[in-house]
Amino acid sequence: MLVTFGLGVTPCAPAQTLCNRTRGSVAASMNNVSFQFPTAMSLLEARMRRRAGVYTRDFPDRPPVMFDFTSSAASADRALMATAKGTKVKALRYKETVEVVLQNTAILGAENHPLHLHGFNFYVLEQGVGNFNAYRHVRTYNLINPHQRNTVAVPAGGWAAIRFTADNPGMWIMHCHLDTHLPFGLAMAFEVDDGPTPDAVLPPPPPDYPQC
Length: 212
Description:
The chain is mainly β. Helix content is 9%, strand content 36%. The protein is built from 4 helices and 13 strands. The protein has helices spanning 43-49, 78-81, 134-137, 181-184; strands at 2-10, 25-30, 33-35, 84-86, 89-92, 96-104, 113-117, 122-129, 147-149, 151-154, 158-166, 170-176, 187-192. The strands form 3 sheets. It has a 6-stranded mixed sheet with strand order 2-1-6-11-8-9. Strands 5-13-12-7-10 form a 5-stranded mixed sheet. Strands 3-4 form a two-stranded parallel ribbon. The longest helix has 7 residues, at 43-49. The protein is flat and about 55 Å long. It starts with a strand and ends in a 20-residue tail after the last strand.
């Protein structure tokens, strides 16, 4: 997966008061999807109950448009700034090996983003500045003794390549740890299937577990 992320703009909601009706509202996104937490129930509850309409399994593997991600000129392109809100997750098979290249963009300014993944530790294969180049950078991956983390600081104007095994069934959020960026929508979720054995299946909550 190639996941671009950064700031952007969404249209003002009809009842939104603090919003520039001409320019829109500041948002954040991953692969141009500004993540919205569901309001009716949690992602995990929707998964357990097989409830349709709470989320979709169509989080994209690549950004919708390829461009010079780290160029400051991107902030002058209104089309690149526009992002859409959604509750999209990436579905993963149990024990699937997942590689994600996290590409920082310079839309509305470049800054460091500490990205945190719940549910897993991942290997940091490589980090760099500029745009990720698969042909050049994959050859320099550290496959011998990479650092194992659950949070990686993706540099301003740069990228990080991570890899993990999806061996923990459930719903797991990946998000920016800057406090303002999560409500802006800088997040996505992985939905990991149950495994083939009883100890690889996510059990339901106890019947007396307090409900939200």
